[in-house]
Specification:
Shape: globular
Distance between the termini: 20 Å
Number of helices: 13
Number of strands: 0
Strand content: under 5%
Number of domains: 1
Radius of gyration: 19 Å
Oligomer: single chain
Largest sheet: none
Length: about 290
């Protein structure tokens, strides 16, 4: 049951803004991938992301870096590094709608991580949701597709790594400040991504600067909209509207990159997202049942 202080309509509005802006960001990444290497794009994403941390550094100073669990932060940073680099590669080497559909499976993989690594209890409903999610992934990952196998594989790696990042954030949130959770990853990722980019550096052209800056700040805007959505309403109220992301991404792929509108991918994405929503609800029910024991 939703809190009386929640505003589902506002949450849905922000979730739609998140879906549209996130799809737009991936379209920019796809566009820039024609001129710039994956490694360079990933570095600039982290470089511009640090700009969002500067106000926190000015406010908190060195306190921003105080942590009781440095090892877990490194685990989270490693997962974010692998996941971020993988999805940047995937967007440049597979249809946008396919990549977005596969990213819907991150919460499903997170449930698997929580059960296997986190030793969380599980119900038949939760297992059914996980299996349904994997079924949706099989629908999206079309074995007959040609020329996109590496991109699809990278998208799956990104979803698994993102799930690991979700679990680490959940573990860290019990002891760490929100500012540390937000700012520290960028500061850990920046030098690592710079080192990687130095091996395959491509200098952006003047015409690439505007979309490059738009990409960097677009990521921050999307995260802001998502945070506002979950602050305004329960996840079960707003998550279904994340489906707007695959619709917008499909439209952009068709219009800007001459991709085909694939109804199978749309259907698979719907199955995955539905499974993720059902898994989240089952997780909440499991937690309440355990608390009542």
């Amino acid at each position: 049951m939703s809190s009386p202080h929640r505003n589902p309509s506002l949450g849905i509005f922000y979730m739609c803004l998140y879906a549209i802006s996130q799809a737009g960001v991936w379209a920019l990444v796809r566009y820039l991938s024609d001129d710039m290497s994956t490694e360079t794009l990933f570095f600039f994403r982290n470089f511009l992301g640090v700009a969002t941390v500067v106000p926190l550094m000015m406010r908190d100073g060195l306190k921003l870096f105080h942590t009781k669990r440095p090892g877990m932060h490194l685990v989270r940073a490693a997962a974010a590094f692998i996941g971020g680099l993988s999805i940047f590669y995937a967007v440049g080497h597979a249809p946008l709608s396919t990549v977005v559909a596969i990213t819907f499976s991150a919460p499903v993989f997170a449930a698997v991580w929580a059960i296997t690594v986190g030793k969380e209890t599980f119900s038949v409903a939760r297992i059914a949701a996980i299996l349904t999610g994997f079924g949706g992934v099989l629908i999206v990952v079309n074995p007959s597709a040609s020329g996109t196998s590496t991109g699809i594989a990278a998208a799956l790696v990104a979803a698994i790594a993102t799930a690991a990042a979700f679990i680490s954030v959940k573990a860290l949130s019990s002891t760490e400040k929100s500012a540390t959770l937000l700012g520290l990853p960028f500061l850990l990722l920046l030098p690592a991504s710079l080192l990687l980019a130095s091996f395959n550096w491509t200098t952006p052209s003047w015409t690439d600067l505007i979309p490059l800056v738009a990409m960097g700040f677009g990521f921050s805007a999307a995260q802001f909209f998502m945070a506002k959505a979950f602050a305004a309403a329960d996840a079960s109220d707003v998550l279904p509207f994340d489906f707007v992301r695959i619709l917008v991404a499909s439209g952009m792929g068709v219009y800007f990159f001459s991709e085909q509108f694939d109804l199978t991918t749309i259907a698979g994405g719907l199955v995955i997202l539905s499974a993720a929503i059902f898994s989240a609800r089952a997780s909440v029910k499991d937690a309440k049942a355990n608390a009542a024991r």
